[in-house]
Amino acid sequence: MADFAKVALTGKLPTGKEPRQSTVNNTTVVTFGVGVYTTKKVDDKYAIDYYTVEYWGKPAEYVLPKLKPGVKVQVYGGMHMEEYNGKDGKKTYPKVRATEVIILDETNTPPKHKEEAEEEQPF
User: Are the C-beta atoms of residues 66 and 73 closer than 8 Å to each other?
Assistant: First the structure.
């Protein structure tokens, strides 16, 4: 059995960086960032780790219009390290190749307990 890194991230798309769409061999690729709170604190605030996510194919085309800064998402997929040449030499960063992206907004939140839902009904 081959080794692999499987990940599940829940976080928000950062502001100031819109998702990018490209095409590789006639397949749509959507690349976006996800910020995830960590357990370490800096100046009494939780630090945020940022991950680059690639999502391929028709599902990526469907989810692209919903990917806006501040939107909360769940991402499932595999992680690998990407290399690039920076001004200080070779650098690496983690990249997630998503197999599933779920938008967690007001219309796609998990159902509440029955008692809580009944209390919120205005009628």
Answer: no
Task: Output the pTM of the full model.
Answer: 0.75
Query: Under DSSP, is residue 117 helix (H, G, I), strand (E, B) or coil?
Result: helix
The domains found in the chain, sorted by start residue, are: 6-120 (2.40.50.140)
CB contact set of 9 (below 8 Å; sequence gap of 6+): 34, 36, 51, 53, 73, 74, 75, 96
pLDDT of residue 93: 86
pLDDT value for 2:
61
Distance (Å, rounded) from C-alpha 123 to C-alpha 118?
A: 10
CB-neighbour burial class of residue 67 (10 A; exposed 0-12, middle 13-18, buried 19+):
buried
